[in-house]
Amino acid sequence: MSWALRSSRRIRPVSNPSVSVVVIAFNDAGLVGEAVASALAQGPAVSEVVAVDDKSADGTSAVLDELAAAHPRLKVVHRTENSGGCGTPRNDGIAAATAPYVLFLDSDDVLAPGAAEALLRAATAHEAPVTVGACVRRELPEGNDVPWVPGLYTPGDVIERPADRPELVRDTLCVNKLYERAFLDKHAIRFPDGRFIYEDFVFTAQVLAAAPRIAVIDDLVYVWHVRRSAARKSISLDRKDVGNWRSRIAAHRRAVEILRGASEELARACQVKFLEYDLRMYLREVGSDPDYQAAWWTETRDYLAGFDEAAVESAAARARWIVRVLRATATPPADLQRLTRFAAEPPRLLPPYALADGVPVWSEEVPAELDGLAGLPVAELPVTVDAEAAGSLLRVRVHDLYGRLAEAAPRTATLRFVPRTGGVPVEGEAVALRADGDGVWTADLPFRLAALAVVGRRAGRRGMQAWDVRVGVECADGSSLLTSLRPLGSLLRRRVLPSSRYGVLLTQPYRTAAGSLALRLAPGAEGALNLVRNRLGRARMGRRSR
């Protein structure tokens, strides 16, 4: 990995720089050793690793003591009471740290090789109190890496004033950054204590409000492990009741207050980020429990009532439309699931489509205006495409959206299969769309799943394969869009297909949590067994979650 830094400032390295890595742990005896090992493996850039055990009830404390006996650079802080959150143990770690710089690490994650040295070189070269590197969310056990806030930073950049880059509020993580300890002490920057969820929001707001110079490197520094099937979910993934959403709102409100004291631009950007990211993420996971839905709706409306109108108007069109629907009705609308589908990625606005005095609105019952629709490029239109079985073909129906798609004149449709574990998509054949009237275009597309399984096998996918199904629409005016499919009818039936390569191929089209079409392909007996095991595992997790 390379690191290329540029700055107009005179470079003056700090003498004898080093890093304290603060690892926090609670009931994580099986994973904390890997986290500590990744910190110790950073080499001489890390002068010490400070592990804070938050009064674990399992063997975490003993694991850390055993590691400390073998590694002089590791010192362990044993809390006598559990704090209930992540902020207090991190604060304890800062207090115990002795190096000029501090780096945070959670017990179920790891630092990338060379992370500390790369961050330290940039921090000292540019006298930057904060240095940021790349982070990935690694979905386990699949191992699929999803970049965190891609495109937000320019590798090699040196940001003199955060207020000049208000979009920085979108990176709320504290673990992908190196901090100068003197900077944190000077501005009294610490995490909220106790059971305060989303403590990163508040800490990051304090950092940005203190206006540090920020150096950016292109090295991968942090691997965030996401274990959605774990028996004990992380605090941020545990969304079984509205309390999690209430906590997120509380953290966000406090972050906005902190930022407003330093910069109106940063505060407004923080509210826009909430509308475009947090709100949509939780809305699409609102579930089917009417009590939860009602409580979530009330909490959200109450919070949005205090938002700056400038922030709402600055948000992307689809975020604005969600806000308008929320403000238009005191209780969840009858078509709430339609709203959750619209909040998904990619967004789909399902028919029917209503007008009020010729203006596009959400529905006849909730006439919230869909302002800005006329100005959206075709690629950003939340078009709905239905899919159903047609023998060995997949019949797709593309719905117009208030005449916007008709203006572009849809011409062809093409299937694209995207591996859910990451990798290169597989493109199908383009087929001409035919106009069926009433703003619908139809095409019958090749759906060769046996051939797809072979391509997946050649790419190294053994056993069960999982694919998202997308459709690309090309228009006569040169525009295009790519979106997911809404499965209908008998399409979701499991089928056994003959395969010259595998003997049999078990296919299971299914509907994702976002309501989109996806596939599980199980080539041969081994693949079928993996599919059965996968289904049993999901069933067990479903019973536990109930």
TrEMBL record:
InterPro entries: Glyco_trans_2-like, Nucleotide-diphossugar_trans. Residues 20-147 form the Glycosyltransferase 2-like domain. PANTHER family: GLYCOSYLTRANSFERASE, UDP-GLCNAC:BETAGAL BETA-1,3-N-ACETYLGLUCOSAMINYLTRANSFERASE-LIKE PROTEIN 1. This is Glycosyltransferase. It comes from Streptomyces bambusae.
